[in-house]
Design brief:
Blueprint: E1 2-5, H1 9-20, E2 28-31, H2 34-42, E3 50-54, H3 62-72, E4 78-82, H4 90-96, E5 100-103, H5 108-119, H6 127-137, H7 151-161, H8 166-173, H9 177-191, H10 196-205
Parallel strand pairs: 1-2, 1-3, 3-4, 4-5
Helix pairs in contact: 1-5, 2-3, 7-8, 7-10, 8-9, 9-10
Length: about 210
C-alpha cells in the first residue's frame, strides 16, 4: 500500500500515475491534508509500504507527517514532494526520515523512476536540490540558531500556524495575553523575522512545526 498525502488534485493524480507504473500490486491511500493522513496511520488497518508526502500541506507541516510515518512504519521508504520555493525544507525532511526528494514539476516518468530507486534502497533527489545541498553544506548551519526555542514558543507557533489569534492561542495554552506577547517578541528575535507570517513560514521551512 502506498500512502499519498497531497492537497493538490493535479499532483495527486501524477502521484497515482507514478504509483501505478510500479505494477498492478500497488494500491494507493490518498489524503488531502495531514490530519486525515495521520488518522489513517493511527487506524488498525493502516498499512504503509511506501509514502509520498507533500511538504506544503494546508493544516500541518508535511515534515511532521514524515516523522509520524517513520515512527509507525520504520521500514517504509518515504519520498517528499516539494517545489523549488520549499527547498529550505530539504534537510529537515531528510532528518525527519525522508529517503527521497522530488520536485512537483518533475515528469511522471522521473517521479516513477525516483520511486523505483527508493524501493531499491537508493536515495533519489532532484538535481537542482542536490546542487542546493552542496551549497548549503558550505554555509553556516542556521538550524543550530533555532534550537533554543522553548516548548512554549514552539506550541505558540503551532497555534499561530493554524490561524489562531493571540487571545485564542493564550487561552489554549493557559497563559495571559501579555505572556503570549512576550513569547512573540522572543520568537521574532530568535527567528530573525518581523511578522507573524514570517515567523510561521521560517519555522515551517526549518521543519520546526
Amino acid at each position: 500500500m502506498a500512502l499519498i498525502v497531497e492537497d493538490d488534485p493535479t499532483f495527486e493524480s501524477s502521484m497515482r500515475s507514478a504509483i501505478g507504473s510500479l505494477g498492478h500490486q500497488w494500491e494507493a491511500a490518498c489524503f488531502r491534508n495531514a490530519a486525515d493522513g495521520l488518522r489513517y496511520l493511527d487506524s488498525p488497518e493502516a498499512r504503509v509500504d511506501l509514502a509520498l508526502i507533500d511538504i506544503g500541506l494546508p493544516d500541518i507541516s508535511g515534515i511532521e507527517v514524515v516523522r509520524q510515518v517513520r515512527e509507525r512504519h520504520p521500514d517504509a521508504p518515504i519520498v517528499v514532494i516539494s517545489v523549488i520555493s520549499a527547498e529550505r525544507s530539504v534537510l529537515a525532511a531528510i532528518r525527519a526520515g525522508a529517503r527521497g526528494y522530488v520536485l512537483k514539476d518533475d515528469s511522471t516518468t522521473e517521479i516513477s523512476k525516483a520511486l523505483q530507486q527508493t524501493l531499491q534502497g537508493n536515495y533519489p533527489i532532484s538535481p537542482s536540490l542536490a546542487r542546493y545541498l552542496f551549497k548549503l553544506a558550505g554555509s553556516r548551519d542556521t538550524t543550530a540558531d533555532l534550537a533554543e526555542l522553548t516548548p512554549k514558543e514552539l506550541e505558540l507557533l503551532k497555534h499561530l500556524s493554524c490561524g489562531r489569534s493571540y487571545a485564542e492561542a493564550g487561552k489554549e495554552m493557559g497563559i495571559a495575553i501579555s505572556t503570549v506577547q512576550t513569547h512573540i517578541r522572543n520568537l521574532y528575535r530568535k527567528l530573525d523575522v518581523h511578522s507573524q507570517v514570517q515567523a510561521v513560514t521560517r519555522a515551517q521551512d526549518r521543519g520546526l512545526i
